[in-house]
Every structure is written in C-alpha cells, then in structure tokens.
Specification:
By secondary structure, the chain is mainly α. It is built from five helices and no strands.
C-alpha cells in the first residue's frame, strides 16, 4: 500500500512538472494587429496561420475580436456624446438640475 502511494505521488509530481513547463509555450500571445494586416492584405486565414506559425483558430479568434471591437465602436459612435465629452458635460452641469429631494 505504501509503495503504491509513493508511485502515485511521483506520477502526479511528474505530470505537474510536465504541464507547468508546457503551459508557457502554449500560452504564447498572438499579434492580432499583424494577423489583421495580413488578412486585409488579401491572404487567407490558413496562409496567415502558416506564415506566422500560429494555429488557424488563433487567426479566426483575432478576426472575431476585431469584428467585436468594430461593433462596439459603432455602438458608442451612434449614441452621440460618449466617454470624455459626456463626463465633461456631467461635471459642468448646474447643481439646480439635481433632484428636488436633494434641496
């Protein structure tokens, strides 16, 4: 029983070491700007993946993020004043616009 526990603990330790050293290699960051430039240049996703030595799913992920960012940008532009302009307007608003309960 004791030998089995030692063997099992050793195996778990070996797997933990193996996965901890492989994780940084798998977690490499993808330069989505470069991917999008290549795609906008007319390359196909599989060509970009091969040229940049990344997976095709990473290319499609960059495309999805770019599409979502563009959609979010059009939403904020359509709402009129946003961001800094709205904050400035709110900060300079007269206090008389406060609710009657505040008086």
């Amino acid at each position: 029983m004791r030998k089995f526990a030692i063997v099992a603990a050793s195996a778990m330790l070996a797997m933990a070491v193996a996965f901890s050293t492989a994780a940084p290699a798998l977690a490499a960051k993808v330069d989505c700007d470069a991917v999008m430039q290549a795609l906008n240049g007319g390359k196909k996703p599989k060509e970009v993946a091969k040229d940049m030595k990344i997976s095709a799913s990473s290319v499609y992920r960059c495309k999805r993020h770019a599409r979502e960012a563009a959609k979010a940008a059009t939403k904020t532009q359509g709402k009129g004043k946003g961001g800094v302009e709205a904050a400035k307007e709110k900060a300079t608003a007269p206090e008389s616009a406060a609710s009657p309960a505040m008086k």
